[in-house]
Amino acid sequence: MNTTLYIVSTPIGNLGDITLRALEVLKSVDLVAAEDTRHSRKLFSRYEIKTPLVSYYSAKEEITGDKVLAELKSGKNVALISDAGTPGISDPGYYLIKKTIDEGGKVITIPGPSAIISALTLSGLPTDRFVFEGFLPPKGSARKKRLEAILDEKRTIILYESPRRAGRTLKELLQLLGDRKAALARELTKIHEEVVRGKISDIIKVVEEKGLKGEVTLILAGHDEKVVKSTDEADVVSTLQSILDKGLSVKDTAEIASRELNISKRAVYQEIIRMKDQRGKK
Ligand code: SAM
């Protein structure tokens, strides 16, 4: 293949956020493979891009990807774009990019916006090490497994979420991870851009009071062992004992104590087991 596949980032809201190189490439390639051709026409008309568009979408990523690959093989240079941000990031693109690389094709990036980096840098949370978890599975054991996998994550955690589910997800995260620092970045680069920062419980309050619309990215502080260790052990034991004395189940105790002490439920369970062991030895 003598042709090139260009991975082109496009705006995540504000149409002004497009690079000069992106515009040059979109105007000069033979074909633009777009996630939703109707959506991309808005960008094309704003910048007078006349390049033909073909559809490349996730539900049929393999079929449409193979068609685009055939175009590359036939001598056409192709630019890949998605509805917003960087293709392949929680958007279609991976299949075509991998196939092109596997077949010895040339792939070039035209970098630009992605909600991950914009949300992370605005969050006020550590940016030196982070993990991107994409969208959590909506329900069931797949969701539980993914949530458990981030339980002890020390790096800043970034999640994409729909506004419909964000409230529920935040409540689950509060129960599981304790009331740690977080940020909710909404409608970035658009008129209603907003970042809510605070503890997870503070963000839940804002969401419940004001409701939530638009595109949402959640950023969570990583698990901070220092916070757990700095909590006075005597405090932990007496708080746990007073909750257990009320006759609550271990599950309810873990939930309440993790919120009150700002430590993870796992840490509370471990402490309860340790207290029971000690009592057994007496
Ligand atoms: N490819 C895109 C990128 O590079 O960021 C992500 C596409 S994914 C289908 C869409 C999700 O990204 C949204 O549900 C939201 O979580 C996040 N997102 C996209 N635009 C955003 C914005 N303007 N503000 C906040 N989050 C955004």
Describe the protein's architecture and organization:
The chain is α/β, with parallel strands linked by helices and 282 residues long. The protein has 3 domains: 4-113, Tetrapyrrole methylase, N-terminal domain (Cobalt-precorrin-4 Transmethylase, domain 1), CATH 3.40.1010; 116-223, Tetrapyrrole methylase, C-terminal domain (Methyltransferase, Cobalt-precorrin-4 Transmethylase, Domain 2, 2-Layer Sandwich); 227-281. 48% of the residues lie in helices and 18% in strands. It contains 12 helices and 10 strands. The chain has helices spanning 20-28, 37-46, 61-73, 94-102, 115-123, 140-149, 163-177, 200-210, 225-230, 233-245, 250-261, 265-281; strands spanning 4-8, 31-34, 53-55, 78-81, 106-110, 130-135, 156-161, 181-186, 194-199, 216-220. The strands form 2 sheets. Strands 3-2-4-1-5 form a 5-stranded parallel beta sheet, sandwiched between helices. Strands 6-7-10-8-9 form a 5-stranded mixed beta sheet. Strand 8 (181-186) and strand 9 (194-199) form a beta hairpin. The longest helix has 17 residues, at 265-281. The model has no long low-confidence stretch (mean pLDDT 91). S-adenosylmethionine binds at residues 12-13, 82, 84-86, 89-91, 114-116, 119, 160-162, 185-190, 215-217.
